[in-house]
């Protein structure tokens, strides 16, 4: 099994295989047949070998999602029952839920799980929801499979949108536009190498392991714990941002403007802005397909009179769900609830500032806001890391 972007050999092989696609795009053509062959070869490298059971799992998963989405599209073209819609969403989520719950109950890896199941599930659920909204009016089985199995983003995103993908899939960029995309794509891959293979690698090598051990020995209030908190936060950023740069850069080289995932998140002046810059495709997915729908439903049904209460409940529910998505452990749940509470507090502060317009607002207050946000985020990553579980409960 070859983990995508986990080493230079994968990148070299991938670039060699993509060369004919680059030549075609420089001529204004997209070689879709060859692109699909490359996808199948790379998927075989990712899910083959000793981990062949993951290959079987993804084949069964794709067949399940295709049947579900195709069936719902046929149904939605004639009817629009809410219970059928909710049922379709639950069935789309079911394989992911089973893969998350099985290890907790049976203490072994789920046979339905595979690398990237979460991100494929986000795509499938998105399809059902946008069909319900009438945004997807045509359905092509081949386009759906190509969207679902788009190999640059298959394991960890970014999460693309079907309508954007389909439009670019059949309308390759002009030669002039593609030259710019190719330049950006190569730059992103080079920057990704710096982030993942150099900065993240050396932070992990010289800081994470040592500080993790000494923090467990010296306890929560030691300097080692706080040094670990900052080191782990920076490692998490550079490792994940590096991977995302590989995925987006590869997509650009293939002529697809997949959305970026990170935009200087640690310079955010508040926690809401942080989530508009950190893992952006995931944040926007949860915003569009969970938060907004939950708010709309509660307002429509007049569940509560206060819009502030509705907003706060939606935020807490959203981040609780995001925490559970990471894993069914207390520290992932606590991580999610911590961010939900932080955004509720942030919204309360914004409302307070609107009522008290005489409060100071300058470079110093902005710098203080960035400092507070950065430390709040780093503490949440300390929770996320699981070290507190070992420190207090084991």
Automatic annotation (TrEMBL):
Its EC number is 2.3.1.-. InterPro entries: Ac/AlaTfrase_AlgI/DltB, DltB, MB_O-acyltransferase, MBOAT_fam. GO terms for cellular component: plasma membrane. Pfam families: MBOAT. The chain crosses the membrane at residues 6-26, 31-49, 55-73, 80-98, 185-204, 210-229, 236-258, 308-326, 364-388. Pathway: Cell wall biogenesis; lipoteichoic acid biosynthesis. It is a multi-pass membrane protein. It is found in: Cell membrane. Keywords: Acyltransferase, Cell membrane, Membrane, Transferase, Transmembrane, Transmembrane helix. One of its GO terms (molecular function) is acyltransferase activity. Belongs to the membrane-bound acyltransferase family. O-acyltransferase that catalyzes D-alanylation of both teichoic acid and lipoteichoic acid (LTA). D-alanylation of LTA plays an important role in modulating the properties of the cell wall in Gram-positive bacteria, influencing the net charge of the cell wall. Catalyzes D-alanylation from DltC carrier protein. This is Teichoic acid D-alanyltransferase. The lineage of its organism: Bacteria, Bacillati, Bacillota, Bacilli, Bacillales.
């Amino acid at each position: 099994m070859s983990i995508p972007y986990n080493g230079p050999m994968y990148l070299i092989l991938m670039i060699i295989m993509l060369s004919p696609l680059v030549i075609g795009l420089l001529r204004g053509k997209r070689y879709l047949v060859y692109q699909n062959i490359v996808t199948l070869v790379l998927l075989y490298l990712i899910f083959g070998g000793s981990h062949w059971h993951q290959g079987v799992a993804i084949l069964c998963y794709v067949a399940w999602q295709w049947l579900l989405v195709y069936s719902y599209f046929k149904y939605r073209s004639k009817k629009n029952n809410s219970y059928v819609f909710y049922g379709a969403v639950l069935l789309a989520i079911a394989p992911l839920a089973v893969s998350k719950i099985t290890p907790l109950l049976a203490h072994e890896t789920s046979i339905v799980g595979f690398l990237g199941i979460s991100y494929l599930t986000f795509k499938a659920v998105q399809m059902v929801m946008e069909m319900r909204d009438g945004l997807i009016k045509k359905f092509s089985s081949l386009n759906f499979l190509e969207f679902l199995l788009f190999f640059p983003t298959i394991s960890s995103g970014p999460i693309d949108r079907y309508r954007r993908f389909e439009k670019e899939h059949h309308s390759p960029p002009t030669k002039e536009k593609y030259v710019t995309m190719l330049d950006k794509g190569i730059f992103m891959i080079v920057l990704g190498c710096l982030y993942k293979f150099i900065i993240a690698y050396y932070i992990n090598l010289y800081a994470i392991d040592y500080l993790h051990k000494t923090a467990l020995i010296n306890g929560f209030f030691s300097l080692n714990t706080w040094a670990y908190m900052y080191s782990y936060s920076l490692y998490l950023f550079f490792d994940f941002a590096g991977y995302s740069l590989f995925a987006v850069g590869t997509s650009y080289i293939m002529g697809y403007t997949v959305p970026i995932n990170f935009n200087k998140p640690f310079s955010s002046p508040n926690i809401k802005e942080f989530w508009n810059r950190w893992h952006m495709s995931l944040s926007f997915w949860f915003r569009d397909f969970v938060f907004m729908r939950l708010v709309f439903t509660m307002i429509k049904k007049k569940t509560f009179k206060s819009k502030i209460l509705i907003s706060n409940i939606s935020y807490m529910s959203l981040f609780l769900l995001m925490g559970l998505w990471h894993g069914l452990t207390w520290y992932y749940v606590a991580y999610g609830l911590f961010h939900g509470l932080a955004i509720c507090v942030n919204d309360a502060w914004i409302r307070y500032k609107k009522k008290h317009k005489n409060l100071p607002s300058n470079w110093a207050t902005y710098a203080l806001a960035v400092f507070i946000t950065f430390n709040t985020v780093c503490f949440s990553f300390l929770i996320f890391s699981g070290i507190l579980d070992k420190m207090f409960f084991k």
